[in-house]
Amino acid sequence: MTRFSRRQFLKTLGVAGTAALTGCSKPVRLLIPYVIPPEDIVPGEATWYASTCRECPAGCGMLVKNRDGHLIKVEGNPQHPVNAGRLCPRGQASVQGIYNPDRYTQPIARDGQGGPVRPVSWEEALRKAADGLRGAGKKRVVFMSHLMTGAEQDLAQRWVDALGGTYLIYEPFAYESLKKANEIVFGTDRIPDYRIDQADFLISFGADLLETWISNVRFARQFAAFHEPKQDRKNLFVYVGPRLSMTAANADYWVQAPPGTQRYVALGLLSLLAKQGAMNMQGAGLPAGISDFTPQVVESRTGVKADLLRTIAQHFSRARKPLTLAQGMSFQDPDALETAVAANLLCAASPGSRQLLDFSNPVSLSEVAPASDIKALIDRMAGGEIGAFIFYHANPVYSLPASWGIEKALANVPVVISLSSFPDETTRLATLVLPADTFLESWGDYSPRTNVTGLLQPAMGRLFNTRALGDILLSMGKATAGASKFPRKTSTKSSRSHGNRKPKDSPVGSRLRHSGCKVSSGEGSGMRGKGRRRGRESRGPSLFLRRAENRRLRKRRLSISLFTLRSSSSTGASQTAPSSRRCPTPSP
Q1: Which of 57, 63, 40 is nearest to 562 (CA)?
Q2: 259: Cβ–Cβ under 8 A, 6 or more apart, which residues?
Q3: What's the rounded Cα separation, in Å, for the pair 41 and 544?
Q4: What average pLDDT does range 172-193 have in this prediction?
Q5: Residue 359 carries which DSSP code?
Q6: Which run of H or of E encompasses 375?
């Protein structure tokens, strides 16, 4: 019998254990360092890229942190006029959309609504989409998207016009009652740019300006300037609403009015101010019977004490620039239109208040389709008048009232195409899913209001087999209406020619080659690397750009100035932020 020494026993045990672990584990992938490192990547060192947040219509500027080719953090852009370096939790969480495990990774076809799904190639998916659009016929194609402006909106409108269809901009928070009230009182159905920081007295009728109302980050910054104690005074904020929201908690007076009674408080204030004669109420268009809303009547209907109402009216009359805000959405206030009209009348009665409403610089939310157009579309769907319905970042099945019956109406539409990146209630009913890139992977521009335009650039290369929205529309348009109506090769050429700018080369990310598991460079992200050396492919595992494309990328490198602030003065001059090669690291 052969005797084993202690050393031989340990050797045999180690070899057997290694073999067992190898047989039960996945194949080992080697991480090979960069053979030819990209110029803009230093392993372990982050690079910041400026872009615009598209999680909501506010359009805040953001700085995106990219390390080793992966997006890991976003912060507010301190040079952006909307948010000035701040970012809401929704914007901070936008990074998770890139790596969402439920995200669509490639086109999907479904055999009828509710049928089984199967992955398809882009060629097959676009062919199916083109066949469906051709079969839909003229004036039977509807394209619905979230709020888009600039080049994307122009391309979507041109695409719909070429197919003879209809384009609708849909947002769950459309502030339709607020727009209607502005038309009644001020003669325009636009949402103005509110200057809260210049007011000296603020009263809100359910408008949660610190949470979700229009542009919460910008209004939070303005509110901080408004509410900061001055040397001789402190501006007061009164919130009228049924719920102790975060905005109500920051108010000096929270007037707890039951749901649907905020309008009585506003009418009571109008009645008091008219009787006191402290303000010029001529030409304000006061409704008939306003004098009937005495403090005692308001108290009987709302429970708000008459003395408190008189105190609020006294503060309002003493202010030089009081500002009144209304929520303007009927699902929170059943009488949202009446409340918004009363709030506007309070502003119209004070010359100083009118200076705080800039209707020459309206918010882009003013372009959202009204509920009547959406209801008419559902009726056409139910009647079989719609042959194809395409939607992008819109989920009407979830947000519209169930009584409208949109889910049943979609069953009568033969072709339902979703361009969304994630599954939702409406995409579940789609017969074809063509996943578009997320905004952190896309080129584009967005204007939250008239005099502010923010640009978007990819912060990293696309992770999955998705495409840009414009490229999807151009491919379907060429296959359906002909290449003559869509001469551009890519959507980036269209976006760069928007606004009479000279078109440049398209981004090169669609031609990127993935030669390994590690992603180190992105589509148009400004990270430059060499993918060829003397005609040979690089063997590194990184994602590189081809050499010829690298030269074109240098020519069109974007600076940190990824927003343009057009001056609202009469000269029409434009102002641009100072440029630099990279975005500075934001301060903590």
Answers
A1: 63
A2: 242, 333, 334
A3: 12
A4: 93
A5: T
A6: helix 371-382
Nearest to 144 by CA among 416, 401, 380: 416
Range with the poorest average pLDDT among 188-192, 476-480, 518-522, 566-570: 518-522
Alpha-carbon span 229 to 248, nearest angstrom: 19
* H-only helix segments in 111-245: 122-136, 150-163, 176-186, 216-227
Question: What digits encode the pLDDT tens for the residues 372-402?
Answer: 999 999 999 999 999 999 999 999 999 999 9
Q: Which two tokens stand for residue 170?
A: 């849909």
- Cα–Cα distance between 460 and 561 in angstroms, integer? 18
Edge-to-edge strands, sheet with 452-456: 444-449, 452-456, 563-566, 574-576
Q: Order of strands across the sheet with 46-52? A: 46-52, 61-67, 70-76
One-character DSSP codes across 148-163: --HHHHHHHHHHHHHH
pLDDT digits (tens, 9 = 90+) for 82-112: 999 999 999 999 999 999 999 999 999 988 7
Helix orientation angle between 262-276 and 295-302, rounded to the nearest 10 degrees:
170
Instruction: Compute the distance between CA of residue 248 and CA of residue 228 in angstroms, rounded to an integer.
Output: 17
What domains can you pick out in the chain, each with its CATH number? 31-101+512-588 (2.20.25.90), 104-173+370-434+462-505 (3.40.50.740), 176-365 (3.40.228.10)
Q: Is 260 left (phi over 0), alpha (psi -120 to 50) or beta?
A: left
